[in-house]
Write a structure and sequence with these properties.
mainly alpha; 10 helices
Amino acid sequence: MSDDNEVIRRSADEPAVFGVLFDRHATSIHRYAARRLGQQAADDVMAETFLVAFERRAAFDVGVADARPWLFGIATTLMKQRARLEAKAWKGMVAALAAEITPDALERSDEQIDAERMSRRLASALRALHARDRDALLLYAWGDLDYEGVAAALGIPVGTVRSRLNRARRRLRGAVGADPTSDLERDHGRVDAAAQRA
């Protein structure tokens, strides 16, 4: 089938066609919500995102081919309504991160300790970020949106996205003891692997 905007346009006369949008993007929305709120809440956020999108499909700018930023924007708004759940999930994140790091011998125990410390620092730094900066960072890193996509999702200018991402990166670098002026990631890259798991 054609681009997302054509699917949404056709769904005005044929509502069942909107299911194509669900098939294309539900997994991405669910994965993003699960990383932020946990698996159980992700089911609800994903379902609510597509319900809201279906109900508001007439307001979608059909001049935009890709609906992902719009969908991630809806999901982010819904997640803000679940801020308490997210705060609780961030607290549990440290244990989950530590569980992902499994050394298979004593020779790696020092590395594990360092990695666990870094994971705790990153999780704490992510929790401490202002919600606006965290939303921009996680849409970029976990939502796999580019700067323009993050801007569309949050309804802000691209320059503001750049500012928020730079501020978030500086704070995360500071939290892990990295030189804030070092280049931890390229402009077109993603947040480093430890931050993505945090």
